[in-house]
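Thread: "does anyone have the structure for this chain?"

Original post by V.I.:
We have the sequence but no experimental structure in hand. Need at least a predicted one for the grant figures.
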Amino acid sequence: MRINLDIQSLRSFIKVAELRSFTRAAEALSLTQPAISQQIKRLEELLSVDLFVRDNRQVLLTLEGEQLSGYAQQILAVNDRVGGLFDKSRVQESVTLGVPEYFCEGVLKRIIVAAAEHLPSVRIGVKVARSNALLEAFNEGRVDVGLVIDVLSSAQEPPLQSLPLMWFVGEGVDWLDDRREVALALFKAPCGFRSLAIRQVEEGGIAWRCVYESEDLRSLRSAVQAGAGVTLLPRLAQVEGLRGYETLAGLPQLLDFGAWLRQRVGWEPWYKAQLLAIIGRAWHEEYGAA
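Reply from O.Q.:
Generated one for you, tokens below.
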């Protein structure tokens, strides 16, 4: 059976089902009760089913009404999304999303895809930087919302997730134990992980030298994979070609780090709740915790 469903009738149907009242639905949609009743009647006639029953002054869905409800919500969501694409009255808004490089390969992709689908009128700009630079950008109003990494003890609220650290070397490296000093591959200063790595080996009484410095995660990992030296990174930064270096596990206990979702003070756009939910969901899908 081929039918043509009326969008306004579906909107009225969903509102009556939500409020369990024709009167309250009419008020919510700025329509008269007879108009709501007529729309529901046309929908029932089109589908040849009863969608509602009255019970103790409430309006409840029938079994057929319950079956229609999910589909009706999907139809309205698609209709409103399409309408938003061509709504010339809404000025396109923009948001700057800040993320450390560690999250670009996974969670950032999920955020961009979901935002393009659910917030098509919002243009997203991305600033990839180290967390200390991102925190400055938040304070200066250059970043609106995003993820940062910090020491767990420095924050009052719980993180999205804790981020254990690990020493890494290349898969085929077997020479580190034969040297009197450890060769470190590090991010360029300023960097919290760089400072922590140096402090760890010094407190452990191990001589060290920096053999490689990098501005970005990809080149740092490539250098370590090639055997340039050992580095200290969050465990989630591990990729093929890197292995944990347990010999350095005897050093002083590493600090606990975590990831937080931050937002700029005063940032209150109409889409805020949606975007925060998208980021939280993307994190959960990528790392299994939020």
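V.I.: this helps a lot. Residues 110 and 282 are 6 Å apart (CA to CA).
O.Q.: and The domain at 165-255 is CATH 3.40.190.10 (D-Maltodextrin-Binding Protein; domain 2).
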